[in-house]
Specification:
Helices cover about 35% and strands about 20% of the residues. It contains 16 helices and 23 strands. It has a seven-stranded mixed beta sheet.
Length: about 500
């Protein structure tokens, strides 16, 4: 190589699309390319993706970003990967062919499996070992469903002809050679979301594998999120055309925490995407939750593992997509700001978008979406505003649970993700929480976190302090509502949530 590499890049494989981003040493975006992929809904509550399409789009966005930035692959020091978590892929390691569509994290087909595990009295066992409740959200029950329902799959798995991974594993395996020796790995953040990993030992748990009847040989090797030993290298015949280290891997929400420089206990961030995810750094020991949060791995460095509490909300940005695609009430998400500002309030309505049940802190698989308080007065603008308010109220639910579990008072909330460009939404969030909301200069902190993990592994950045120096504030939104308005509005939300719960029976 004639000169020192100037950039680090990341594949950000999300629920609705894939992005490739290239960053400079200051953590600034140099080039970016994005493509959506198809959402597949075979029946109510089922959500799938085509893994082959995801890999094809990944290759296209890599080429697109390199062309856009006029960047040669040799100028890149390392590659990181971040991904939609819990989405479950099974494929043939000899051919690279997926053996079923990916089952997406939002999918609820494993409800009966989960209910049976709960009926068998196993909730406490899973909670104690994994930090997770038994829920349709996680990968382990999805993998069990595939093994139980795809003809011949269990036999293939036992012969070593079917391997499992979350989407990071699928991308890393393909980037590092695929059938020709691709690395079958995941990092500890993604492994911690499977319901299969012991949170303290940081290894697959044989008892849980036995309960779910999952062959251990299907599972990837668990590695640090930032790995100086590299997971593998890109191949000459791959989308980058040269050999580059692939050495950073974090689930998307942990990547955002890392990209937001939340490296001290008590620092928290909220990411606004298809769902909403608030993570609070709790330090080097896991904090069990009594309030419906997940205890999870924040990130793993060679020098140690940091844990977090997480509140996961299934439907936030997806509710805005629903207004656009299913109801035709808006043409684009960008319109919601002006429409919502056109009314003083939501006209007395609350919208609880429990399309996939309720996640944190309720964990009610049987909840479904409701709009309550409807009168003839209510207009399209009120429903649009209620949709944005729902995002903020669900975040408040999670914040209250974090306070109860950790005893930590949040003094400010760092935010990121696509919806943070909506100033009205960010102001509403500050009003409903009663704490300042801080939006950083780099909005795509998920990709940035994966790039940071990869760059640390190769010495492109020296330590966490250097990464913290890159973090800069774009705008701070201060709360404007008084306490009485805030609490009255939140009490109405809590009543609306009760109306949504336990809707599915049997």
């Amino acid at each position: 190589m004639t000169s020192q590499p100037q950039y680090v890049a990341a594949v950000d494989q999300g629920t609705t699309g894939t992005r490739f981003m290239i960053f400079d040493h200051q953590g600034r975006v140099v080039a970016s390319c994005y493509e959506e992929h198809t959402q597949i809904y075979p029946q109510p509550g089922w959500v799938e993706h085509n893994p082959t399409e995801i890999w094809e789009k990944t290759q296209r966005v890599i080429a697109g970003a390199l062309a856009q930035g006029n960047i040669r692959p040799e100028q890149i020091a390392a590659i990181g990967v971040t991904n939609q978590r819990e989405t479950t892929v099974v494929w043939d390691p000899h051919t690279g062919e997926p053996l079923h569509n990916a089952i997406v994290w939002q999918d609820t087909r494993t409800r009966e499996i989960c209910q049976q595990l709960i009926a068998d009295g196993l909730e406490g066992t899973f909670r104690a070992k994994t930090g997770l409740p038994i829920a349709t959200y996680f990968s382990g029950p999805k993998l069990k469903w595939l093994l139980d329902h795809v003809p011949g799959l269990r036999e293939k798995a036992e012969r070593g002809e079917a391997i499992f991974g979350t989407v990071d594993t699928w991308i890393v395996w393909n980037l590092t050679g695929g059938p020709a020796g691709g690395a079958h790995v995941t990092d500890i953040t993604n492994a911690s979301r499977t319901m299969l990993m012991d949170l303290r030992r940081l290894d697959w748990d044989d008892e849980l594998l036995e309960v779910l009847n999952i062959p251990r040989r299907m599972l990837p090797q668990i590695r640090p999120s930032s790995d100086p030993a590299f997971y593998g290298t890109t191949q000459a015949d791959g989308p980058l055309g040269v050999s580059l280290p692939v050495c950073g891997d974090l689930g998307d929400q942990q990547a955002a925490l890392f990209g937001q420089a939340c490296y001290e206990p008590g620092e928290a961030k909220n990411t606004y995407g298809t769902g909403c995810f608030m993570l609070l750094n709790t330090g080097p020991a896991p904090v069990p939750s009594k309030s419906g949060l997940l205890t999870t791995v924040a990130y793993g460095l060679p020098e140690g593992t940091i844990y977090a509490l997480e509140g996961s909300i299934a439907i936030t940005g997806a509710a805005v997509q629903w207004l656009r695609d299913n109801l035709g009430l808006i043409r684009s998400a960008a319109e919601t700001e002006e429409i919502a500002k056109s009314v003083e309030d939501a006209g007395g309505i609350y919208f609880v978008p429990a399309f996939s049940g309720l996640f944190a802190p309720y964990w009610d698989m049987d909840a479904r979406g409701v709009i309550v308080g409807l009168t003839r007065y209510v207009t399209r603008a009120h429903l649009v505003r209620a949709t944005l308010e729902a995002i903020c109220y669900q975040t408040r639910d999670v914040l209250e649970a974090m306070r109860a579990d950790s005893g930590i008072e949040l003094t400010a909330l760092k935010v990121d993700g696509g919806a943070t460009v909506n100033d009205f939404l960010m102001q509403l969030q500050a009003d409903i929480l009663g704490v300042p909301v801080i939006r950083p200069k780099v909005n795509e902190t998920t990709a940035l976190g994966a790039a940071y993990a990869a760059g640390l592994a190769v010495g492109f950045w020296s330590d966490l302090a250097e990464l913290r120096e890159n973090w800069g504030v774009d705008r701070v939104f201060e709360p404007r509502w008084d306490e009485a308005r805030r609490e009255a509005a939140y009490a109405g939300w809590k009543r609306a949530v009760e109306r949504s719960r336990g809707w599915v029976q049997g």
